Give the backbone structure.
Amino acid sequence: MGLLLFVVVHSAAIQDRDGAKLVLAKVQDGFPRLQRIWADGGYAGQLVAWVLATYSWVLEIVKRSDAAKGLVLLPHRWVVERTFGWLGLSRRLSKDYEYRTETSEAMVYAAMSQLMVRRLVRQKPHRWARK
């Protein structure tokens, strides 16, 4: 669905692969049935083996084909890109205004909460709830 479960904002001095370890540490307790994670090519390498050894999860890298030209819709990747698009609609997240990483995380949670509440309000009531 593209809804965020956990957010970790870190400084640009931390490489994405190392930042992924911070996110996965948070995810471990909240989702005990998790088995598979999709990631882009930036997370390839030793992280795949580390995730399997540490958490027994499969980290599957979704790569774009070298032969592909132009816009190519990648499986599972479009969900992430769509979520980034939704978050980009929030004025507070359009630029990096925050000084502290905790504040940035809070702004991401606030934007996603607003999106989820809007979706809940727009849903039609169930048949049994209608008068």
User: Anything to note?
Assistant: Residues 101-122 form the longest helix (22 residues). The two ends are 30 Å apart (CA to CA). The chain has one domain: 16-129.
